[in-house]
Amino acid sequence: MFLSTCHNGYIGTITKIHGDDKVKRFLFSLGCAEGDEVALISVLGGNYIVGIKDSRFALDKSLAGKIELSQPGFRRRHRGMRGR
Questions:
Q1: Domain segments of the chain: what residues?
Q2: Is the pLDDT of residue 77 over 60?
Q3: Using CA atoms, how far apart are residues 26 and 5, in angstroms rounded to an integer?
Q4: Which of 19, 24, 26, 79 is the most exposed place for a label (fewest CB within 10 A)?
Q5: pTM listed for this prediction
């Protein structure tokens, strides 16, 4: 399952990042690496707001489509993902 096909509140583990080295380096610079847990906070205007570790950032649909996730499903977000 790819991040671009998930709904708000989905939490999964990054299993693979597809794309060329430039894409992989860019996502890695944001803190996005295989094995990390990612939470889809919301989708706003075609941008995917995600939380990884203690960071929150937006990805466009093309980048979100390059991040493959495991399928554990929905879980309650812990307090750190709400920014409080």
A1: 3-76
A2: no
A3: 21
A4: 79
A5: 0.80
